Structure formats: structure tokens, C-alpha cells
Amino acid sequence: MNEEKTPLEKASTWFRTSISIRLIGMGIILLLLLIPMGMVKSLIYERISLQNDVKREIAQNWGQNQVLGGPILTVPYQTVYHFTDLVTKEAKVTKNRYVLHFLPEELLVTGSMMPETRHRGIYDVLVYETQLQFNGNFKFPESKSWEEKNIEILWDECSLALEIPDLGGVQKDIVLNFAHEKTPMNSGLTADSPLHGGVTCPVQIDPENPEQLTFDFDLQLRGSDGLSFHPWAKNVQVNIESPWTSPSYFGAFPPDDVNEDTSNGFHAGWQVLHLNRNIPQTFTTGPSDLFGYAFGVKLNEEVNDYKSTERAAKYAVLFIALTFLTFFIIQISKGIKLHPVQFMLVGLSLVVFYVLLLSVGEHLGFMWAYIIASIAVIVLIGTYMRAAFNSSKLAGLVIGVMSLLYFFIYVIIQLVDFALLVGSIGLFVALAALMYASRRMDWYHLKHSPVPAQG
User: Fold this and answer.
1) Between 79 and 290, whose confidence is greater?
2) Spans of all domains in the chain
3) Share of the chain above pLDDT 90, in %
4) Mean of the pLDDT values across residues 319-323?
5) Which of 263-268's residues contact partners 24+ apart within 8 Å by CB, and which partners?
6) CB-based contacts of 329: which residues, under 8 Å, 6+ apart?
7) Cα dihedral 313, 315, 318, 320 in deg (nearest 10)
8) Is a pLDDT exceeding 70 seen at residue 7?
């Protein structure tokens, strides 16, 4: 004769067999797993920060992001006032010095960027070396300011300056050929230069022979991250080519001529007119937006393992939730009970996947790390579920579902432009599969007694 259960025993039985309690328990476990996932994401960001520190250290020794501008021609002049001292009756002269800066009429820059990978410990840093040829011309410097009789132009003090932010990247002497005369350029700028940093040299202008002043010079330069230019000429043309296959164009002006297929490298050409930017051809002090129209190219890393790992971690909650729902459908349909501790162990195994992905990826790359980490976790959980379900068939089902999920996440990570589209379609298909698997369940009259699984 069965003894009637006490209210406490009935409550305990209901608590252990209630479908609602199971769902609530899964939700609580999922929320608790956010704590170790947050720690994993912090670890990923820490490794990214270390990599960025290495990049900055190598850039300081090799050459930083180079933003080139110029050349700019500077012509000094002075106002001269003659007067007679009323006391001594002596003639005296007062002079006030000024400068005018002139931009080229034409500027053509052609060159190539040769990428190179520098190694520091487990980190690889992409840098480049570039060979550039500058050609162009200035109009003979003229200004309405010089029409006054008391103006004296200092033709023997004219100079030409080139903006180079990181002179440590210069690999060869820069010899300027200006008006058919060659002069080596020196580091540093004059006190009245509008530039931030670079090189300069004196130039000779013959006021008795006003004509277009041509110039040309070669620049061998190292840098990292990107190479860009300021459009400091009436007509600017820049043509850059490189064997690098994943460029990124940025700045105020997109390239006008660029190849779509970059499998063998890229070539890009820009043309900027003076009407495209709000910078005068002649000025006394640098305009406020003199440095506001730079354009150029970056050599993006073809595979950034840390970024890929970071993107994979963003899908962690979705992955764990779908895995838990799969287990929930299995245990309900087959009458199998899984303890919350078992859910927690499975959840922690899914979290450890991202630690493996990060650590192995630093040595073997993202693809092999993903394969190794996913196989390790799938085998671990599949073996564990084989004992928990007491069924090789159900364990095989778990392995199959997890394999599909890992493959799906990998595809999303690789598809940058279509990640949202493919992800939303995949999520819809997963939800449809769960709904199909549970379509015949009577959620109000589910049997709570376990049914032994057949192995």
C-alpha cells in the first residue's frame, strides 16, 4: 500500500519534474555563464591590447603612419620705411618681415608600396616601404601685396618644404631638383613654415627670368598602417600600386581609378582639383583646414585572428542557448532527466572553447585553432552525453547538432559583408528545426517519468 506523500515531498517532486522549473533553471545557468564569458572577452581584449602595443613599438623603430604634404614654396618679404630722426637728423630704416606661401600648380606623385611582416614574439606586424617620385611646377611667385613701393622681396631667402610626420622612416637622402638645380633637403622647418614637421631646403628664384618653376625628387620612405597625402596643389594626381591584396581606401577623396580584382595586388589613382578643397593657392598663415583633406590607402591585415576570435565570442550566448534547447528537447521527448550540474558542465565546456580558440590561434592561426577547439569540445560533450543519456544514438545526435552549429558560426565569421543576412537566415532555420522537433508535444500534459533510453 502506497503511503500518501507529505506536502513537502509533493513540492520536492514537482520541483524536480516541472517543465517550467527546468526552463527557468536553464535560463539561470545561461545567465551565470555570462560571468566566465565576460572574463574570456576581457582576455581577448587584453591580447588585442598587447598586440597593439607591439605594433606601436615596431612603428616607432620602423616608421609610423605617413601623411605626406607639399612641397610648399615660401617667399619672404619685408616692408621698408625710411624716415628722418627729428633729434639727430639722421636717416633711419624700419623693416617688418613677412612671408607668403605658394602651392604648386601641378603635382604628380607615383610610387609603389612594398609590404613586409615584422615579427616580435608571437605577434606579426605589417609595415611597408615605399618608393615615391614627386614631379610638378610652381607659377612664378606673384602677389598683389608686393605692388606697394615699400616692399622688398627677399629672393635669396626663399625655401621649399615637404611635410613628413615621421622622419625616422626616411631611408635615403632627398635631393630636390628645383628649376634645374639640385639641392639636398635638410630635416627641420623654418620658423615661419605652416607645416608640422618635415624637411626643407633653400631655393634660388631669379626675378629677372619669371617662368614656371619645375621640381622633382625621389622619396624612399618606411611606414606602417597607412600612407596618405594632402592635396596641396591646384591639380593633384597620385598613383600608388602594391602587391598587397587587401587594401582599404580612406580620407576625403576616394580613388578615381582603382582595380576591382586585387588578387594580384592593387593600383589606385586619385585626382583632386583646387575646387575640391577650401585651401587657397597663396596664403600668409596656414588655413585652419590645411590638414583636413588627406586621402590615401591602408594595408589591411588579410587575416586578423584576434578580430575573428572576438567576432566568434559575440555568438557565444546564442550558441550556448541553442545547445541547451537541443538538450531540453531531447530530454523532454525521450523522458530523460538532466541535472542542472550537467547543464553547467556542458556550458563551461562551451566557454572553454573560446579560451582554446584564443590560445591555439596565437600559434597556429584562426582556422586551425577553430578546427582543433571545436573538435575537442564536441568530442568532450559527445562523450559526456553518451554516459548521461545512456544512448550512443542520442550522443551522435548531439555531436551532429553541435558540428552544424560550429560550422555555421565559422561561416558567419568569414562572411564580413553578408554576416547579418546569413546569420538571420541560420537563426530562423534553427528555430524552425526546434519548432518542428517539438510540434507534437503537449506541453500541458508532458510525462514526467523518465523513459529508459535505448543505446
Assistant:
1) 290
2) 19-50+306-437, 65-302
3) 16
4) 82
5) 265/241, 266/241, 266/242, 266/297, 267/239, 267/240, 267/241, 267/242, 268/239, 268/240, 268/241, 268/297
6) 434, 437, 438
7) -30
8) no
Non-local (6+) Cβ contacts of 347 within 8 A are 29, 30, 33, 320, 324
What is the full DSSP assignment across 122-186? TEEEEEEEEEEEEEEEEPPP--GGGGSTTEEE-GGG-EEEEE-S-GGGB-S--EEEETTEEEE-E
Question: How large is the C-alpha radius of gyration of the chain?
Answer: 35
Q: Cβ distance 385 to 395 under 8 Å?
A: yes
Taking a C-beta distance cutoff of 8 angstroms, is the pair 106, 235 a contact?
Answer: yes
Mean pLDDT of the chain: 81
**Distance (Å, whole) CA 163 – CA 72:** 9
Q: How confident is the model at residue 106 (pLDDT cuts 50, 70, 90)?
A: very high
Mean pLDDT of 69-76: 89
Q: Where are the alpha helices (DSSP H) in 19-72?
A: 19-62
Q: Is the pLDDT of residue 84 over 90?
A: no
Cis peptide before 71 (omega within 30 of 0): yes
CA–CA distance, 395 with 397 (Å, rounded to integer): 5
SS3 content of the chain, % helix, strand, coil (to 5): 40, 30, 30
User: Are residues 309 and 361 in contact, defined by beta-carbon separation less than 8 angstroms?
Assistant: yes
Cell representation of residue 444: 500541458
**Rounded to two decimals, what is the model's pTM?**
0.72
Look-up of cell digits 602651392: 103
- 258 vs 18, more confident: 258
Q: Report the DSSP pairing between strands 226-229 and 295-299.
A: antiparallel
| Stronger pLDDT, 55 or 277, i.e. the higher one | 277
Let me know: does 262 contact 246? Beta carbons within 8 Å.
yes
